[in-house]
Amino acid sequence: MPQINADTSHQTVITTFEMTPGTCQDLLDELTEAYEKFISHQPGFIAAGLHVNDAQTRIANYSQWKRREDFQAMLRTQEMRVRNRRINELCKSFEPVMYDVAATFG
């Protein structure tokens, strides 16, 4: 379960994917498999969530890592490089961006 807290030293990564409704489910399946079989088993992984908009043209991915270096190391693995090439074929674009939590409410 993601922990959204400004007092944490965890690395937050938000990735947005843009696709067509025709490839949304295929992309969601690829991302789900990547998390279930590989990403969630990598050192430093804490939690993640996948969100789909109602038009099925965007997927937002929220993930947390103990350190930014853990996320970067996962991206550099041969398996993730192969998976990212497949993911790239299913969407118009995707961009992972690292964030620090500035404030929380509620």
TrEMBL record:
InterPro entries recorded: ABM_dom, Dimeric_a/b-barrel
GO molecular function terms noted in the UniProt entry: monooxygenase activity
Domain ABM, chain residue ranges per copy: 12-81
Gene3D superfamilies: 3.30.70.100
Pfam families tied to this protein: ABM
Superkingdom, taxonomy of origin: Bacteria
Protein's UniProt name: Antibiotic biosynthesis monooxygenase
Keywords: Monooxygenase, Oxidoreductase
Keyword Oxidoreductase attributed: yes
